[in-house]
Amino acid sequence: MAEHDSPFTPLPSDDLARGLALAFADKPGLAHIGLVGDTYTVLLNGRDTAGRFCLIDMHIPPGGGPPPHRHDFEESFILLEGEMVATFRGEKTTVKAGQTVHIPANAPHQFHNESGQDVRLLCICSPAGQEEFFAEVGVPVATRTTPPPKLSETEQAAFRAKAEALAPKYRTELLKQA
């Protein structure tokens, strides 16, 4: 191979139209979304990352966490505080603060806070888009730890129907509880 030949594609030029994104969970103006008893704060959305990923700060109270689901994108969770049970393809694993869990695209999974303490984690979805699903199906709340309003059985059924109807638009499938 000649010295000037390279098996690698050269890096494109810096996109000067894109700026630095600085995010922190208590920054005024961030979206705090109440969903399934949890509160999700979107730190970086697809507009911030050219669609490559989104970053969500998740506050999961005792008993919280989404139902079983799967989606056609990669997802990683970095536990900052507490511990949770991650169920991956039916197998449960306890994950503690300081650990990271990666879920491959399309794999059935869920996480659940079975402890008596709040859990805080960062969620990275790649590519971006999951934050849009959360915004469309959830409800705005005041802060990153404000719980969403409690739902009656009728309201829970309506929420589930809305989430199931919107899920395919966001490459997500809600699965039946085991």
TrEMBL record:
InterPro entries: Cupin_2 (IPR013096), QDO-like (IPR053146), RmlC-like_jellyroll (IPR014710), RmlC_Cupin_sf (IPR011051). This is Cupin domain-containing protein. It comes from Granulicella rosea. Residues 58-125 form the Cupin type-2 domain. It comes from the Bacteria.
